[in-house]
Structures are given as structure tokens and as C-alpha cells.
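Thread: "does anyone have the structure for this chain?"

Original post by V.I.:
We have the sequence but no experimental structure in hand. Need at least a predicted one for the grant figures.
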Amino acid sequence: METLLVLARDPSAWAALATLVAMEIVLGIDNLIFISILTNKLPEQMREKARRTGIGLALFMRLGLLATIAWIVALTEPVFTLFSKDISWRDIILIAGGAFLVWKATREIHQHVAPEPEGEEESMATRAAPGFAAAIGQILVLDLVFSIDSIITAVGMTDHVPIMFVAVIAAVAVMLFAAAPLANFINRNPTIVMLALAFLIMIGMTLIADGLGHHVPKGYIYTAMAFSCGVEALNMLARRRRSRAAGQPPAH
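Reply from O.Q.:
Generated one for you, C-alpha cells below.
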């Protein structure tokens, strides 16, 4: 308790907390896009429950990882060498997580663009929809990858574990608040789905590159994502303007 009071009076601790919260929220965007796309494939009455369950379990997992922070930091120690590159458990986790993300996003894109067989009564969405438990499992797998990466980054920014705990809780609270609006927006705008899946492929390739020792600054990734979102927003406005001019309901 005394340690917490000392931190509360330390301006540098507040600065570290603000920085960590911002970092956790930004890193959480990747996870939130994946959660939105995955849960939108569930029956409508299950979506909100799946989002809240997945994000809630992710919170407990992140707090559990923080409690074993010494073990997390040890994941950066090399375990073997491949082509003159030291590979750690963190690298293995990033490569595996990135490969999973690329595979999942590519599979989703294929399901959206592949023609349905003639005479097939069951819709593509129904065939491709995961079960509730499968959706939660996939959410947790990706959150594990992002959590380990963000915790290792956080260790380099502050030595105070209580600050990390508060930052994680604050970021997850923002994710809970933003999950439903983002998922509904993606669901209402089909073209956004393809853009979001492209983001997931880019993020997956970035994770693989990072695991292989080729770090790509996050600023480049999020700038590219923001630019693409800006272009898509202009496209949406243009489509709606054409629809109004033609006297039709606005196209999404």
C-alpha cells in the first residue's frame, strides 16, 4: 500500500501510466478488429456475449501474465540459432501467432470472394460460422500473442508492476466499451470487412517479421491503417452521395 501511495505522488509514474495506457489501447486495436470479425459470424444473439466473454477472459489472462512477469521477460532469452539468428520463445510465439493471423484472415477473404456452389442451400456465413467455444478460443490465442509482445514492451518503459496492472485494466475497459460499436459498424459496412481482413494480414506479416528479427516500427503500420481508413471513408461518402442523387437508399 505504501508503494502505491509513493507512486501516486510521483509525476513520472503518472506519465508512465498515461503512456502505457495509450500503448495498450493502440495495440488493442489489432485484437479488437479480429474480435469484431470473428464474433460477427456468430448468431446475433450470441455476439455480445462472445465479445464480453472473450475480452473478459483476455483481461484475466493478461493480469496472470503480468503476475509472472519474470518468466515473460525470460522468454527473450535465445533457445536456438537459425541461419545465424538467435531465436527465443518470444520469437517463436510471434511467428506462430502471425502465421495463424495470416492463415485466418486469408481463409476469411477466400470465403467472402469464392463463389458458392450451385444448389447449395446453406449460406456462406452459416457454413463458415464458428461455434461459441471455438470463437472464444481463437480470441484467447491471438490475445496471448499480443499480450506477451505488449508486456515485454511495457517492461522497457517502466519497472513498476502496479502501473502495468492499471494500464492493462484501463485498456481492456476501453476495449469493452468500443467492441460493440466497432463490430456493428463493420457488420453494417461489408467493404470494411475486406479492409479489416487486409489489416490483419499486414499485422500478421509484421509479427512474423518481428519474430525473425526484422522489427517494423508500429508507427508505420498504424499510419498505413489510418490512411486506408481515410480513403475508405471517402469512398463511403461518395457511394452515399451517388445513392441520394439517384433517389435510392444510401449504400453502405
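V.I.: this helps a lot. Residues 217-252 form one domain.
O.Q.: and The longest strand covers residues 78-82.
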